């Protein structure tokens, strides 16, 4: 991430990645619209000129924050795609997601959901950006599930795009509930119900997964 942050003028006297992590917390708790420049720079421990020099404007800072969040906090989503069966892919994703939404060291919920639920002075560009980011994740899952159909891991006739959308609806709904204070055990209970709708291969059934 460090290489994506602007290098301009004399060397900075602060750690750009640490400051960005602090900005993530502000955006996560307050949303893009709710996070003022003063909130951001106070949390980051830098001046406005330093913020502009290192990250650009507020929107560019937010985009960098989302990229760092996706790289670190959502690494589990990429890892889930490597599971050997479609059921295991979905199960690992939803269970890891429920855990991530309720981490003690992070705000409850999900940055990509809470960051831009409202449309404000940006004309909706942040909401569209976040929607596109979520759609990219959904498409990656759909491609993995499509491969599962081709390999016979999912029944013929399974709609991988619809199944991927279902999984994302569950995860995004859990994110909203987590932000409202629903605990981890309750989110996992929802995951248990959701998994019953996922087609399972013969191998999964025999393995008891």
TrEMBL record:
Any one GO molecular function term: DNA binding
Keywords, sorted A to Z: DNA-binding, Transcription, Transcription regulation
Species whose genome carries this gene: Sphaerisporangium melleum
DNA-binding found in the keyword field: yes
Keyword Membrane attributed: no
DNA-binding region: 36-55
Pfam families named in the record: TetR_C_13, TetR_N
The HTH tetR-type domain, residue ranges: 13-73
Transmembrane segments: none
InterPro entries documented for this protein: Homeodomain-like_sf (IPR009057), HTH_TetR (IPR001647), Tet_transcr_reg_TetR-rel_C_sf (IPR036271), TetR_C (IPR011075)
Protein name (Swiss-Prot/TrEMBL): TetR family transcriptional regulator
């Amino acid at each position: 991430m460090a290489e994506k942050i602007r290098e301009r003028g004399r060397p900075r006297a602060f750690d750009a990645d640490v400051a960005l992590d602090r900005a993530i917390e502000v955006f996560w708790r307050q949303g893009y619209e709710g996070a003022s420049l003063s909130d951001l720079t106070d949390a980051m421990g830098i001046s406005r000129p330093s913020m502009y020099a290192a990250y650009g404007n507020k929107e560019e800072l937010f985009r960098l924050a989302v990229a760092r969040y996706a790289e670190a906090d959502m690494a589990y989503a990429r890892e889930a795609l490597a599971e050997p069966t479609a059921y295991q892919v979905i199960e690992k994703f939803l269970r890891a997601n429920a855990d991530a939404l309720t981490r003690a060291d992070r705000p409850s919920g999900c940055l990509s959901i809470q960051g831009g639920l409202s449309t404000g002075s940006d004309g909706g560009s942040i909401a569209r950006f976040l929607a596109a980011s979520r759609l990219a994740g959904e498409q990656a899952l759909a491609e993995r599930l499509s491969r599962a159909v081709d390999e016979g891991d999912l029944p013929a006739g399974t709609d991988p795009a619809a199944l991927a959308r279902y999984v994302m609806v569950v995860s995004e709904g859990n994110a909203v509930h987590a932000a409202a204070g629903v605990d981890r055990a309750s989110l996992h209970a929802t995951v248990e119900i959701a998994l019953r709708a996922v087609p399972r291969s013969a191998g999964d059934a025999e393995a008891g997964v």
